[in-house]
Design goal:
Radius of gyration: 20 Å
Distance between the termini: 53 Å
Helix content: over 70%
Order of helices and strands: HHHHHHHHHHH
CATH superfamily: MetI-like
CATH architecture: Orthogonal Bundle
CATH topology: MetI-like fold
Number of helices: 11
Largest sheet: none
Number of domains: 1
Oligomer: single chain
Strand content: under 5%
CATH class: Mainly Alpha
């Protein structure tokens, strides 16, 4: 049985030498996170602006549901998406189960409420006179929404970064929807789980180091945008 010091030393060696498996899992994880965050942002930010800026029946209920979904367990999301993509599911003919695009879909479902809810919160913190002034100057409703979005850009950026951070560090969706297939759908988090089960602690620890580095970078950027938004 290897000691912690041995595992740590071997893990550092894997990181420094850019072990092939390590690079593969990290690259795939970052690709999935980037794709899912982009798609969720393209859908979630406009919806967040609409919800935050406009009044409509049931708005409070919608916001409550969004805030509730922030705590949605990843395994539940993974199960739902698995059933949707399975052979007998409504999206079965697309054959996306156990593929990277399938994982991306699952991650989009996971972080969409985060992006929408945090965008709504960012819009709510924007001075209400911004929209009124834009409309008074002749802007259309859509143009006024754009002005408000620009004013709340730091808070919206923080929402997007939070979504990326959620994706890159989660394991439930990636494991259930992707199947943790070597060479195809294995990510950093699912590889960590597998290698711990196999007793390969050096690679698991190396992946953990990379994941912590990514998480640290995300939080540094997140804190920057938070600070800018509060100025």
């Amino acid at each position: 049985m290897h000691s912690f010091s041995d595992a740590l030393r071997n893990a550092l060696h894997l990181v420094v030498t850019l072990d092939a498996d390590l690079v593969e899992y990290a690259a795939r994880s970052l690709l999935i996170a980037a794709a899912a965050t982009l798609l969720a942002s393209l859908i979630g930010v406009p919806l967040g602006v609409l919800i935050g800026e406009h009044r409509f029946p049931g708005k409070r209920a919608v916001v409550t549901v969004l805030n509730t979904l922030l705590a949605m367990p990843t395994v539940v999301v993974g199960l739902v998406v698995y059933l949707l993509l399975s052979r007998n599911g409504p999206l079965g003919p697309l054959q996306l189960l156990f593929t990277v695009p399938g994982i991306v879909i699952g991650e989009v479902v996971l972080i969409l409420p985060i992006v929408i809810a945090l965008t709504v919160a960012a819009i709510a913190r924007t001075d209400r006179d911004v929209r009124k002034t834009a409309l008074a100057l002749g802007a259309s409703s859509r143009q006024a929404d754009w002005v408000v979005l620009r004013e709340s850009r730091f808070g919206v950026a923080a929402a997007v970064i939070a979504g990326f951070g959620r994706v890159v560090s989660e394991v439930g969706v990636a494991m259930i929807v992707g199947g943790n297939m070597a060479g195809y759908t294995r990510t950093m988090t699912t590889a960590i789980v597998l290698n711990v089960d196999m007793g390969e602690f050096a690679l698991a620890l190396a992946l953990g180091m990379v994941l912590l580095g990514v998480a640290l970078s995300i939080n540094v950027v997140f804190q920057y945008f938070q600070g800018e938004g509060q100025q």
